[in-house]
Amino acid sequence: MDKNYLKLVIVGHVDHGKSTLIGRLLVDTGVMPQSKIDEVKTVCESLGRTFEFAYLMDYMEEEREKKITIDTAQIFFKTALRDYVIIDAPGHKEFLKNMITGSAQAEGAVLIVDAKEGVKEQTKRHAYILSLLGLKQIVILINKMDLVGYKQERFEEIKKELLVHLTAVNLTPAYIIPISASDGDNIANKSQHLPWYNGPTFLAALDSFKPTLASQILPLRLPIQDIYNFGGQTILAGQIESGTIKTNQEVVFLPINKKTVVLSVKKWNQELTEAAAGHNIGITTKDDLKIQRGQVACGLEHLPQVTSEFNAKVFWMSSEGIKTEEKFILKCATQETEAKITKINKIINSSSLETITNQSDEIKETEVAEVVITTTNPIVIEDYNYIQELGRFVIIKGEDIAAGGIVIK
Amino acid sequence: MEHLDQLENKSIYIIREAYYQYKNIAMLWSIGKDSTSLLWLVRKAFFGKVPFPVMHIDTTYKFPEMYTFRDKYAKEWGLDLIISKNKDAIKRGIGYATHDAFTCAHELKTVALQQTMAKYGFKALLLGIRRDEHGIRAKERVFSPRSQDFKWNYQDQPAELWDQYKSKVLEENHVRVHPLLHWTELDIWKYVKRENLPVNPLYFAKNGLRYRSLGCKPITNPMKSEANTVDKIIEELATTKEAERSGRAMDKEQMYTMQKLRSLGYM
User: Fold this and answer.
1) Do the chains contact at B243 and A278, CB–CB below 8 Å?
2) Which of A257, B22, B88, B249 satisfies CB 3.0 to 4.6 Å to B124 for a cystine?
């Protein structure tokens, strides 16, 4: 197992310093090639501005002109301990789908708050989204401490307000660190300006995160992705989402509920005796069950739920909302079915967490809703807290993903 | 799971997903280290087969070593190779001696690709680009739609989460699929070593110079290096402060060249 690699997302309200923090980190740890720093210098000079660390991430012309991050970007950096992928997420409400696209790939998160402005609308919304995405590891940075005279009182004040919200969305931060991203305080090195703070620097805090491990000890779930018939042999291909598959093992395909025995487990020209979660493999089976994409191979014990109706929490990303009874496509792992929302139990403001209504027939952009979903064809699902990969789904409206959702009880 | 296995598994998932969602698909092979690694991953994904055409966009300005490499492995791996050339532009005399790099890149690559796409009607293209190559590529999606006139609407990209990608495009559009987006240059070389992949000899140092990124001969410069084996390249990359594409003149011609080219449909 390789533990020396971690994906991290930086979130927070607009202008609280996400891109600047990343730029500073790259320069301080010396991973940014000089030519890229020079490129930013040239751009800043031509615009008559001082050096903008954010431009190392904000690469679009439009982003630099407007001084905002429009889309998520990813960049690589390393500490003595390990390699990181840093995912920058935009802080504007209208780019929420980009923030979610970035955050859904992360194993840990950094929430940044401007010390002067304090907790704002997107600070709260992003914290809630992280929680919905199942991100548990989080570090809080109180940025721009230089603008509030490095005062501990201000730090404590924000910390207190933020902790109330984080508790409400079920997040426990590992550290809360006062920093100044533009000046480099408490980023790679301990700050002389903040003697009252005794915790780790941001870099040291990052190294305390743990990578997500594949769920090998859970029961087998192998959603079939495609069926190949190169050279006369039928191979069922897919990614093992949880558990382990072995040759000679008896498996059941759900929802069709048909059993067979695994004859071989393949990776290109390799014949394996077993393969575990995270591996993309192919299997051949004793009986030809005419398996299609979307069937899930499971072990015979601890079977998942097969249902056409379930409770879920959905977060709406598209500018176009949805009404109850409106048909859409639901995708969960490789399963795909027509579906609709039959009942909306509650609509929540994803920033304030206040209940907007429990009597609506429409969900709108940035809202979170507790709903009942009915699918045209039965699907295999799991509780989100048990096997995440089968406890989460997306809703497709028209051509694109319009919402994400998680299965709840 | 080892890091390279993680990267490989994710790429294979993406490749299989692209093939399932868009049967009329091809991959672009520039003969460089990245797209050759991609080709290798395609072979892994389909148990040794490459079930769709492999397209080489030939500007006619490539290094002779690249053509030799292409023909050797196209034969050895049984590829359905499509060679794409903008014959009209070549006839009109568009070339590096008389035209700027932006025009050449657009005419000889993007337009050539447009012509081949129109001829075969591919709905999806697999490409070996990586996020760490360039700031604007760091903003890409795994499944990235292109309009009929090849435009990339980078200011409004579709959401992607949990292995769910864009699976539908309008009839006249196509989707660019990027299975190597999450790899770094160093990862590629470690993979080349682990899998014992063939790579073009131009990557290895000769007389103190080697090519780190391969493009058209007139606008691609070698860098100072003594790395003449895969191991030495891996060692060199672990400490270098030089950008990978610093030998690619086109990137530096003016600000936002890459963004502009890419928004017009460049790879």
Assistant:
1) no
2) B22
